Recover the amino acids of this structure.
């Protein structure tokens, strides 16, 4: 899962949200220097990544992108799933996405001094561009892929990713919906995280 999903799956604790957001940038046992709830968020992030990377629906989605991304196809699936989460946000959270993203920005700014250096470097642009909301449209998704290709070892192949998504859109979307049921159950049952889903919807009740 990418930034939007990790924030979403953090529940209502600000510190857990911070930890889940920075999880990729805190290695090994360095998490132990943080507040206990931030530690919880970092561990939650790691466990969400492990759950996601091994999930059959994610692995099947990754196969669609193997030709253009090889071993990095799972990274692209993470962003594509954030696209579907942003696009259908009203089905998954009681707050409008604009309000949720603004609240998340405020939380990260309030805890700015605690953030790893790399997060401090990209956070202002992420906030200014409202990137988390922009995942909902194809241009925003492609921009996010282009940024990752410039800053990481992700192949510079965003046109291929968008074309593959468009050609397999319903398939990706169906896999995302089923996966979301499983990941919501997982964070609730294994980590006692309650996400503010709309109308009192409970993951164990189906959707």
């Amino acid at each position: 899962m990418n930034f939007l999903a990790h924030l979403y799956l953090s529940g209502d604790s600000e510190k857990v949200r911070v930890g889940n957001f920075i999880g990729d940038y805190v290695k090994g046992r360095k998490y132990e220097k943080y507040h206990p709830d931030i530690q919880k968020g970092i561990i939650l992030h790691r466990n969400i990544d492990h759950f996601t990377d091994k999930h059959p629906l994610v692995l099947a989605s990754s196969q669609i992108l193997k030709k253009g991304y090889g071993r990095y196809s799972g990274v692209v699936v993470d962003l594509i799933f954030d696209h579907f989460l942003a696009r259908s946000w009203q089905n998954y959270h009681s707050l409008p996405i604009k309000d949720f993203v603004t609240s998340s920005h405020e939380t990260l700014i309030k805890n700015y001094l605690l953030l790893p250096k790399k997060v401090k470097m990209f956070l202002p642009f992420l906030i200014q561009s409202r990137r988390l909301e922009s995942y909902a449209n194809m241009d925003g998704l492609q921009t996010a892929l282009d940024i990752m290709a410039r800053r990481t070892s992700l192949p510079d192949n965003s046109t291929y990713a968008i074309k593959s998504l468009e050609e397999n859109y319903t398939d990706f979307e169906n896999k995302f919906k089923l996966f979301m049921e499983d990941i919501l159950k997982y964070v609730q049952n294994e980590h006692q995280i309650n996400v503010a889903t709309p109308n009192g919807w409970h993951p164990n009740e189906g959707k």
